Amino acid sequence: MLEVKNLNVSYGRIQVIKDFTFSVGNEAVGFFGPNGAGKTTLINSIIGLVRPTSGEINFEGQSLLDRETYQIVRMGISVVPQDGELFPIMTVIENLRIGSSYIKEAREKTSERLEFVFKIFPILKERAFQLAGTMSGGQQRMLAVGRALMAMPRLLILDEPSVGLQPSLVTELFEKLAVIKTEGVSILLSEQNVKQGLKVIDRGYVVENGTVVIESTADDLKNNEHVKRSYLGL
Ligand code: ATP
């Protein structure tokens, strides 16, 4: 589905992504690594916010290079950014409607999509007319995911969705990601919370200094000495 080959990205003279190759199929894939490893830069490259210096990014056989972000979203990729980027003085349902408003096919199916999102996140239906900014951190994170789903993505990308959430909410959110996967949406999850992330993903990449240091299945990552020592505190 998503194929990235030999990607290089620089900010000015500083190269932050080095010869990075990865793929996402009909599965959940993780990017794990410390702050500044380059995870956000990778995501921004996929959705056209950062232009790589070289390499290939293909989605369902079509190159994403030289495409604008709105075109990439239309092709079936939605991102939940690190800070959620909700509209705090708009209601929950208004925020959700914005998620489908830019894409004709999704806009025509807004009611259907709302039902889909409400089925996964019943709390958003209960709070439909509450202002987004007055919801708890966990509920806002759910809303950010719900809004991304309104665009009918086939690939959902999440940039560190666990940041700032208490552990029980992280568990709840990640359980929802598992449900979303069973609904046929592929997932690319960038996380520093490797312990929780490993529960959701099928395969993962450990990213350090802009390059892949380990690529493996979730089970193998759990047992990998470097992962255990550096990310699981074992
Ligand atoms: P974080 O968890 O902090 O978002 P990350 O793994 O997502 O970390 P990036 O945000 O992609 O990492 O950053 C990779 C490197 O690029 C870091 O050294 C960062 O300081 C640098 N960097 C990020 N954005 C820019 C920019 N716009 N200009 C210059 N350097 C940048």
UniProtKB/TrEMBL annotation:
ABC transporter domain ranges (all copies): 2-234
Listed InterPro entries: AAA+_ATPase, ABC_transporter-like_ATP-bd, ABC_transporter-like_CS, BCAA_Transport_ATP-bd_LivF, P-loop_NTPase
One MF annotation (Gene Ontology) recorded for this entry: branched-chain amino acid transmembrane transporter activity
Keywords carried by this UniProt record: Amino-acid transport, ATP-binding, Nucleotide-binding, Transport
Keyword Iron applies: no
PROSITE patterns in alphabetical order: ABC_TRANSPORTER_1, ABC_TRANSPORTER_2
GO BP, one annotated term: L-amino acid transport
SMART domains: AAA (SM00382)
Segments traversing the membrane: none
SUPFAM superfamilies referenced in this protein's UniProt entry, alphabetically: P-loop containing nucleoside triphosphate hydrolases (SSF52540)
Protein family (similarity comment): Belongs to the ABC transporter superfamily.
This protein's name: Leucine/isoleucine/valine transporter subunit ATP-binding component of ABC superfamily
Organism: Mesotoga infera
Gene: livF
